[in-house]
Amino acid sequence: MISEKLLNGALIAGLLLVVLHAHLTDAPFTITLATKVAILAVAGVGLNIALGLGGLVSLGHAAFFGIGGYAMGILASHAQSYVPLMQSPVLIEGTKSMPVIWLVALLASALAALLIGALSLRTSGVYFIMITLAFAQMFYYFAISWPAYGGEDGLSIYVRNGFPGLNTLDPIQYFLVCFGVLVLALLVSFRLRTSPFGLALNAARQSTARVQAIGQNPFRLRLTAFVISGAITGLAGALFADLNRFVSPTMFSWQTSGEIMVFVILGGVGRVMGPLAGAALFILLEHLLGGVSDYWHIYLGALLLGVVLFARGGLVGVLTEGRSGDD
Amino acid sequence: MTLLLFLEQVLNGLQSGVMLFLTAAGLTLVFGVMGLINLAHGSLYMIGAFAAAAIAAATGSFTLAIIAALTAAAAAGALVEMVVIRRLYTRDHLDQVLATFALILIFSEATRWVFGSFPLYLDIPDALSGSVRLPGGIEYPRYRLALIAVGLTLAAGLFFLISRTRLGIQIRAGESDREMIAALGVNISKLYTLVFALGAALAGFAGALVGAIQSVQVGMGEPVLILAFVVIVIGGIGSIKGALVGAVLVGLTDTLGGVLLPEALRLFMAPSDAAAVGSALASMLIYLLMAVVLIWRPHGLYGMRA
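Predict the joint structure of the above. Result:
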């Protein structure tokens, strides 16, 4: 068995090698797939902070993913049509600049996470799962019935947004942007685990009463984790929308929540690199099995069932035989 | 808006509420007794609807279709319980969520494989088609009225089952102390399979009945499942009474909100804006209702601490 550190390095190197090979052999589709892996991994890294570190089983992270997506869609569509977003009291115009869009996506999804978290963290366990799922569904129905931004049809953005100094329409350059964000998100996630905040949060997951007894407030710890988690997933949503140059209510759907959770689980809950391993495996399966059968979800379901019932610890756990896990 | 229209909408809300109750009751029962969160409950609803549509198309009989829905959903429920669910009782909620999410994928894709992606239709039986004139002069569809009656009857039956029968005593005992009733000689694993199949049959029955007013298609179960979650959060986990109250509240809020909110907004908005804003806000109403209940009573109207 191999050490988790080695596996982590191999995962990053593997992703870069695939992209390098695709770039040299001129295979833009493969680069797009790798970009998708990087973006979905960011979404998973976000969820993993709530799920792995905080023990918060959120089945509503599609809400944040979608808010990030719509932050991009709304700002870019206003820039595209030259209609200001708001005229009074202050003039707010749309933008095609990625850093600005990212900031808005982060703030908007953090705010949503604060509201949803403040309500749903009043409960725990199975209530928490149902409530987060329900709130995500609220956003889904709202996006469908709000006609201003495409309603059920979604919003198309004709040209990908710009990043200063780069040509984001070039697949390899956009991949590098997303890869950079992924590395940053992984660093944040890694730093959080070993920070005093992360340790307290992990302790609150294992024993709420003891954390309370030493004077920490578990509710506040969890809410902070939920907000950070939602913001990172929101950022991933903005990147994902930019990859497709399209946003639709599907980003808010319960399937999206489930899939983000599947990345985390396939990889291994609470492991820093778990979401990257899981997202890579998911996209690989989608690509390979999707070619074999239109009904590839059956195989995905069977695989997931197998992982849950027999291989706890996910892919990273199986390959490292449970070393340096959380429990 | 006239009073008659309002009363008609109240009946519509009641109808969707009692149907929602049938789905939520099974879910809350399974959680109360086995401590299991089952995302695949919506798939059992779908299986009921598809079984009914297939049998109705083959035989033309609505009665046979309903029997098929009950049988298929109960059988699928019992099978899934014995093969997969049974292994999940001792696991944490995360494992339960994932395994039952996997079951949704399997059930949905298998159904798509067998029946295709196009929606099927289930016709209302002749005896229940048309409308009746209610006291006060409301013309109301006979079928929807029958759904209200059937739903309320089943709710009463379920209350009787839980509070008055031997099985009900075992179910309630199972909720409070699993080891103790096993020690008293009750076959726990058989009881669990039975409860799961009962919940599945209720969901499948609701799927078939609602399938006759809406279309029968893959993915029809999950929106209902999420609504049932809202119902359970409002009513309190494990409480049948809570499920009934929550379901009727959600049904009424959803139906009346969709009609009244655009009307109310029209008082101070242009009609086209009022329709758009109203329908968008109405889609959020039940979740706001859930939020209010959460602030007021975090464990639901009739719930105990989970």
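Chain B has a mean pLDDT of 90.
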